[in-house]
Design brief:
This protein is about 15% helix and about 20% strand. It is of the alpha+beta class. It has 2 domains: about 50 residues, Pemi-like Protein 1, Chain: D; about 35 residues, no CATH class. The protein has a two-stranded antiparallel ribbon with strand order 1-2. A two-stranded antiparallel sheet has the order 3-4. The longest helix is centred in the last third of the chain and has 8 residues. The chain starts with 19 loop residues before the first helix and ends with a helix.
């Protein structure tokens, strides 16, 4: 699905403001976590509102075994090992 969009410029800090209409449609509030990633074979940047509080920030795995660390960081055992290395 592609809709008509607006053009935004990246500022000197590398920040890009999301238009108010997009924030309203997807119910994105100030300080909401948003996941940024790319499709493997495409040159598209995808933004996804992070909905699950138990998702590991390193592996993306969701589990009740994941642990919450300081600063709101959630890590699985595998994610913690990757971060440690």
């Amino acid at each position: 699905m592609q809709t008509e969009g607006s053009i935004r410029r990246v500022d000197e800090l590398g920040c890009l403001a999301l238009p108010a209409e997009i924030r309203r449609i997807f119910n994105i509030k100030e300080k909401d976590p948003v996941k940024i990633y790319m499709n493997e074979n495409e040159y598209n940047v995808i933004l996804k509102k992070k909905m699950d509080l138990l998702e590991c920030m390193m592996t993306g795995k969701i589990s009740l075994q994941n642990r919450l660390y300081s600063g709101g960081r959630v890590l699985s055992t595998e994610g913690a090992e990757k971060l440690y290395k």
